[in-house]
Amino acid sequence: MKSHFRLHVFYEVVQRQSFTKAAEALQISQPAVTKHVRALEEEYKVPLLERKGVIIHITPAGEVLKSYCEKIFGLERQLKFEIDAIRENQGGTIRIGASTTIAHYIIPKVIASFQQKVKDVNIEIKSGNTEAIENWLIDDVIDLGMIEGSPHRGGLKYIPFLKDELVVVCSTKFHRGHKSSLTIKEFLKKPFVIREQGSGTRKIIKDALESKNLHEDDLTIAMQLDSTESIKRYIEASPNYALLSIYSILEELNRDQLQIIDIEDFEIDRDLHFVIKEGGSIGLGTTFMDYALLHYNKKL
């Protein structure tokens, strides 16, 4: 069992790119994390991680071990879900608060599949921005949150379940044949439609700009709207631009209504997160979370 726990320690370091953050997540000391990783390296007689200053690089052997960790953890989740489904197949209600992109474009198929596996489960979805969902959790309005924003609220636990990418999009009607890539300087001059304050997407955009020593005020904001769907409909009928989740525009790309514009040396990737109260119990919500993590091949 000690070797198995070491795999979890190694995987946590790789996922968080930090021995310190892995120690915090696992609630053990940083020297203990280092000891477990070194024990794995001694067991396999090959280096798994290389530290260059504060940066951690995974070695080719580490990549192999990481891929097997994901397979092992995936089988664990599948086993846990199927046993839980047999043991807890008494039904009930799960109250979920989901950010608009997740509620509209990502989670519906997972919910439909889950309800076929676990009978007599009623799922209530409440849609809102990241700030609203965190408040609903604190106030016990929902059992489980699913957000687009970055983790930052004390008293809540954040669990990544899916990688997402924000891309710059515009209407093919107005921009067909135009440049398919822009410099950051050109990008800042384009008229943008953006989400409201409190939106996880807006916070991610703000953080990405600051990583380039830029500010949200450097954008040319033409309009602010409170949902991804309204932004898409507006963009299709205007020459303006927007930054949207790749998952939210798949149909429009297939129908040739929107197109992606690449920005040189500027990519916005993010983790979508489950959010629960720290130390709280969410009953059937745990079974749903296990199933969704299994669906997205993530380790809890």
TrEMBL record:
Give GO MF terms, alphabetically.
DNA-binding transcription factor activity; transcription cis-regulatory region binding
- Domain (HTH lysR-type): give its ranges: 1-59
> What SUPFAM superfamilies does UniProt report for this protein, alphabetically?
Periplasmic binding protein-like II, Winged helix' DNA-binding domain
Question: Which Pfam families does this entry report, sorted A to Z?
Answer: HTH_1, LysR_substrate
Listed A to Z, the keywords are: DNA-binding, Transcription, Transcription regulation
Family per record: Belongs to the LysR transcriptional regulatory family.
UniProt name for this protein: LysR family transcriptional regulator
UniProt lineage: Bacteria, Pseudomonadati, Bacteroidota, Cytophagia, Cytophagales
